[in-house]
Write a structure and sequence with these properties.
It is a single chain. The longest helix is centred in the first third of the chain and has 22 residues, at about 5-25. The protein has helices spanning about 5-25, 35-55, 65-85, 90-110, 115-124. The chain has one domain. It is about 75% helix and about 0% strand. The chain is globular, with a radius of gyration of 15 Å.
Amino acid sequence: MRFVTRKIHSLIDYPVALSLFAMPFILGLGATNPAAKWLSVATGIAAFVLTLLTDHETGVIRVLPYWLHVAVDRFVGVTFLAAPFVLGFAGLDAAYYWANAAAVLTVTVVLAAPESRTLARATG
């Protein structure tokens, strides 16, 4: 069931970045700690820039290798998993980060299709 190819990943990057920026305002995050709102906003901005700079199908200035992009995504997933514990988020604030962590780690670890060596060498 590893169907999230590099192309599929590139197509979902921009909507995910925009949702990380917008959802804290829509959901009213930050009730237990203002960082619950701003961590997601900052991550959304960073994810948008990362996507612009990644060497994949929707990258605009393709200077960063795709493998680095995926590594950063996985780091974000682990960070989102830990954030409620480290920063004292509770309720909706915590649930938001745990849901995002589960989604990011599922997409980048469980569902990610392996890249062919030829494609990785040709573009990396």
